[in-house]
Prior knowledge:
With 192 residues, the protein is α/β, with parallel strands linked by helices. Helix content is 23%, strand content 22%. The protein is built from six helices and eleven strands. The strands form three sheets. A five-stranded parallel β-sheet has the order 1-11-6-3-2, with helices on one face. Strands 7-4-5-8 form a four-stranded mixed β-sheet. Strands 9-10 form a two-stranded antiparallel sheet. The longest helix has 11 residues, at 3-13.
Amino acid sequence: MSRDRILSAIRQGKPDVQPLPDVIGFPSHIADTDLADHFLTMVRTNGGLGVRVNSLDEVHAQIASEYNLTLPTLSHVDGLDLNNFTPTENLRLLDDLNLVVLEGSVAVAENAAIWFDETALGIRALPFITLNVVAIVSARNLVGTMHEVYKRVDLNTGFGTFIAGPSKTADIEQSLVIGAHGSKTMTVFLLP
C-alpha cells in the first residue's frame, strides 16, 4: 500500500470535529471550616508533622527545641532568621545542609501539597538536598483541591514545585524508604 493511500484512508476515518465541552467546576468536598484540620491530617498521613502556631516566635521556639541549630541551617522566611551560613559563599555547603525553612504560598487541604515558587526557594535544590524541611503556611492560603490551587499559582514565573511531605519511595522490594531522594523529615507550621 502506498503512503498516499494510507494517509487518505486515515483522513477518511477521522471523526467529525466536535466542540469542546463547557468547563465544569470541581467543587471541593472539604468545607471551608474544615480546611485547616483536613490539611494537618493529610500532612500527618504523608509522614510529616503538622503544627498549629500563632506566631513566628512560636515557630522559632519549636524549631530551636527540635533541631540542632549549630548544624547548617537556612531560612528563607522573613522574620525567622535562623541562618548560620550563606550558600552563595560555597554551594558545596549545601551537601551538609541540615535544615531549610521555607514559606509556602498556597497549600492544598486534599493532599497537603504546598506550592513553593522560585522566590520562596532561592536555590531550587534546597528542599531536595536538605535533611529536614520546615514549611510555614498561612491558613488564609489554604484551598480545598488541586483544581483550586491552579487559580492562585502563576506558572509563568519560573521554577516552582509542590511538596507534600518528606521524601519516600516503596519501589524497591515493596519496602518504604524515607529520605530516598529528598528530605527525611517535613514539619509544617500553620499560622492563622
